[in-house]
Amino acid sequence: MKKLTIKNRDYDYKAIIDLMDNELKNEILAQKALYDNEQEFFLVYSSAHEARFGEDFAGKIKSVSVPSTPTKGKAKFLK
Hints:
Largest sheet: 2 strands, antiparallel
Number of helices: 4
Radius of gyration: 12 Å
Distance between the termini: 17 Å
Strand content: 5-15%
Number of strands: 2
Mean pLDDT: 80
Oligomer: single chain
Number of domains: 1
């Protein structure tokens, strides 16, 4: 299972991707020069999310139960 570290806690990568706004996520995915890996993508997304929606995306994650077991399927990322 791929993990992201957010505020010193590990989260399942796919679960976090599923929480993201699809339009904003796709805009950032189209700009591959902004990030080199999943962790950097999360940081870019978090900053863009706060600018667009006026809320801290990492704070949103804390209020959601993120599975700690692997999920089936893969997120569409860095093909």
